[in-house]
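Thread title: Can someone regenerate the structure for this chain?

I was given the following input by a collaborator and told the matching C-alpha cells would be attached. They weren't. Posting the sequence so someone can regenerate them.
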Amino acid sequence: MINISQQFEESKLIIPYIMVGDGGLEQSCALLELYVQSGCKVIEIGVPFSDPAADGETIQLAAIRALKKNITLTDCLTFIQSGKEKYPDISFILMTYINPIIHYGINDFFNDSLADGIIVPDMPLEEYDILYQQAKSSNTAIVPLIAIDTDFSRMKNILEKSDGFVYVITLKGITGTQDATITQSEDAVKKLRYLTNLPLVAGFGIKTSQQINTFHNTFDGVVIASQLIKHIQNEEYGELERLLNTKKTVI
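Best answer:
Regenerated them for you:
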C-alpha cells in the first residue's frame, strides 16, 4: 500500500470523487483516467449505498443510478484493483458505509481490498474496533471524518486510530447542500495542527476554483465530489477540467 500522507509532500491536492457505476463502469474508468491525467494523486472511490446518511441529493442520486445498474461493493473493489494495476502510484480511498462491509464479511473485505484507505461516515469512534485491527493488519488507513465542532478530547481520541489524512467536514450539514467558508474551520484547524502531523483535507461544500484556492491556503488538500457529479451529469466537461486544474499552491 502507498503511504497516503506522502502524496501531499510536493503540492496541495485536489481529491476528486467517483461514484462507481454512475453512468456505467466504462464512464467510471474514463473519469479515473481523466483525473489521473489532470494530476490527481489521491482519488476517492464511492460505493453506491441506498441510505447514505452523510450525502446530499447529488450523491444520493448518483448512488441510485449506480444501484440501478446493479453495482456492488465487489464491483468497486474490482474497479480499484484495475486502477491500481494501471496507476500504481495513485492512492485510492474507498468511501463506504459500514453495512456493505459487514455484509461482504470484514475479513474477506480486507483480504480482497487494495484500497490504500477507507472512509466510513457512519462508523463513530466508539465502533472503530469493528474494523481497526483488520485495517491495521492489512496496512489500510482509516481516514477519519472530523466535524469542525468536535471537541479537543474527542479529536485526540479519533486521531489515535487514524492514518492517511484527516478529512475535515467544513460545515454543519451534508454534502453538496451549502457553500463552505474558511472562517468556519479556523478553530478546528488550529486544534488539529496541534494534535497531528497528518495532512488536513477539507470537504463538503467546496464547489469553485476560488474556494479551492482559499482552502488551500489553510488545508493540505480539498475533496470535490458533488460539483464534479453535477458537471458530468450536465456534460460540462470543460468546467470539470477547469475545476480540477485549479492552480495548486506548492507547500
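The two ends are 24 Å apart (CA to CA).
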